[in-house]
Amino acid sequence: MRRRPVQFALALVLIVGVIIGGYFAFRRTLIADIREASLNIDTTDPVAHGATLFQTRGCAGCHQLDSAGAAGDEGPNLTGIGGRETLAYLVESIREPGAVIADNCPEGVCQPIMPAYGTFLTTEQIDALAAYLASQQ
Q1: Over the stretch 4-38, which tens digit does the pLDDT of each residue have?
Q2: What gap in Å lies between CA 91 and CA 106, rounded to an integer?
Q3: Does residue 41 contact residue 52 with C-beta atoms inside 8 Å?
Q4: 121 Cβ partners below 8 Å, 6+ apart?
Q5: In terms of C-beta distances under 8 Å and separation of at least 24 residues, what long-range contacts does 26-34 make, across chains too?
Q6: Predicted pLDDT at 71
Q7: Residue 92 to residue 37: CA distance in whole angstroms
Q8: CA-CA distance, 47 to 129, in Å (whole number)?
Q9: Exposure class string for 33-46: b at 16+ Cβ within 10 A, else e
């Protein structure tokens, strides 16, 4: 008889987890897709496409990037990142942020917070975002 409350609690935790996960997936994908569609962006220009993605996909909320007017302080400062890192490094850092932790990342902050964008951005979007960041000299 005591198993019923435990089973209920476990089911409730599972349901809440699915709802929270769904919310964040919705926020990072569907809402951003709608915003990008309304902007009618040119996806043939990777730097311009990446500039839009930097704003719509949440990068500006956590990273500082002076040219984009982004003043986030949770992730590394990306101002001048194109002069410090290679395109391959940028692609890897976007696709799997925990693979390499930036030297100027606030201690203990970057890995748990930055999502693995490789799980929900297309290769084209990741390449565009990396091209935009690489252009930041």
Answers
A1: 877 777 777 777 766 666 555 555 666 777 777 77
A2: 21
A3: yes
A4: 53, 57, 94, 129
A5: 28/57, 28/58, 28/115, 28/120, 29/120, 32/56, 32/57, 32/58
A6: 93
A7: 26
A8: 7
A9: eeebeeeebeeeeb
pTM: 0.72
Tokens at 48, concatenated: 């311009």
Angle between helix axes 30-39 and 3-28 (nearest 10 degrees) is 10
Residue found by looking up tokens 């999502």 in the block = 115
Structure tokens at 18: 């699915």
Specify the residue for token string 């949770």.
Answer: 74
Question: What value does the mean pLDDT take over residues 25-53?
Answer: 79
